[in-house]
Amino acid sequence: MIRRVSVPALFPPPTYSHASVVEAGTRLAFLAGAVPLDAAGQLVGAGDPVRQAEQVLANLGEQLRAVGSDLGHVVATDVYVVSSETAVLSAVWEVVEASGLSAGPHSSTLVGVACLGYTGQLVEITATAVVPDEGTPA
Q1: What's the pLDDT at 13?
Q2: Do 120 and 47 meet the contact criterion of CB atoms below 8 Å apart?
Q3: Does pLDDT of 22 surpass 90?
Q4: Can you give the C-alpha Rg of the chain in angstroms?
Q5: Alpha-carbon torsion, ordered 15, 20, 89, 41, to 10 deg
Q6: How far apart are CA 81 and CA 92, in angstroms?
Q7: Rounded to an integer, what distance in angstroms lies between the CA atom of residue 58 and that of residue 87?
Q8: DSSP H or E run through 126
Q9: How confident is the model over 67-87, as pLDDT tens digits?
Q10: What three-state secondary structure class fits 98?
Q11: Cβ neighbours of residue 30 under 8 Å, at least 6 residues apart?
Q12: What are the two backbone dihedrals, phi and then psi, of residue 117, each rounded to the nearest 5 degrees?
């Protein structure tokens, strides 16, 4: 259902694939950006991009479960981090690598940005995932 491609002519990706191919007729879920807010709408991990990344991934997992999918079925993400420092982006990427997203591995882009939508927000992840057919393990 998902074919993950690492292109031999390109630099080998450490924990992501260059491309993901999904067979026509497969159900896809396009998820809104997961943000570091708790169920009450309060910011989690103020000033701490690593803690925010953990909350974002937990929220992303909830979004996926709600549509019948999971982190292992994610085919693409965009990871936004409020920082221009490579070390901060790398720290957030380590959290992504440690999650179930790297099981694929999915295709991903890591981007440093100037700001995000909520006051104090440092991390956001958008995702596209395959939704397995009924009876197929998510």
Answers
A1: 77
A2: yes
A3: no
A4: 15
A5: -120
A6: 8
A7: 22
A8: strand 123-131
A9: 999 999 999 999 999 999 999
A10: helix
A11: 128
A12: -70, -30
Which pLDDT does position 135 carry in this prediction?
Answer: 57
Residue with tokens 């002519």, as numbered in its chain: 9
What string of DSSP letters covers 22-67? E-TT-EEEEEEEE-SB-TTS-BSSTT-HHHHHHHHHHHHHHHHHHT
Residue with structure tokens 């591995």? 105
Band of residue 101 on the pLDDT scale cut at 50, 70, 90: confident
Residues 6+ apart with CB under 8 A from 42: none
pTM (2 d.p.) = 0.86
How far is residue 90 from each of residues 2, 51, 87, measured CA to CA in Å?
Answer: 27, 14, 5
Whose tokens are 């179930």? That residue is 100
Distance CA 34, CA 31 (A): 8
pLDDT digits (tens, 9 = 90+) for 113-125: 999 999 999 999 9
Sign of CA dihedral 35, 83, 112, 15: negative
Task: Please tell me the chain's helix, strand, coil percentages from 3-state DSSP, rounded to the nearest 5.
Answer: 30, 30, 40
What token pair was written down for 105? 């591995």
